[in-house]
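I need you to check the entry underneath: sequence plus fold tokens. Let me know what the token row says about the fold.

>
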Amino acid sequence: SLASLNVRYCENLTDDSIKAVAAGCPSLASLDVGDSGNLTDESIKAVAAGCPSLASLHVEDCENLTDESIKADAAGCPSLATLDVSSCENLTDDSIKAVAAGCPSLASLHVEDCENLTDDSIKAVAAGCPSLATLDVSSCENLTDDSIKAVAAGCPSLASLDVFICENLTDDSIKAVAAGCPSLTSL
């Protein structure tokens, strides 16, 4: 039974193929459809319904996705440990808060260039995902020290944090991370 599928940069794929995989591969643990621009919420919601063991989902640069598909994955895939939604510009705090609530084992989250995200979603991740080891919030320009300080307090296993082009952050964030994340190897 198929456990991993990587169709990154397969720009001609449609929802039909991913829905077929979701229906026929219930043991799917890893799916990478990054940069497959034709996909919509329909296919990712099908994955949430058909692949409850999914642990890794990469949908970066799938510009048609909205909160609905990510919320469905948060509810349907509680074992999700890796999520990359970078450059999914339609996403809001609602989807990331749903992930924080539904996926307590989340270890890696990439939300680079998700411009609608605010401190609320990142604080929810800090509270709900204590095993988080990797966080990329680069180019999330709405974030402030509040969210990064929450991550420093709530995610002691954090090893990698990317805050590139988070222009509202101050020394307070970096000091908090330095004090609260002893496993940090990359900042």
Remarks:
- The mean pLDDT is 97.
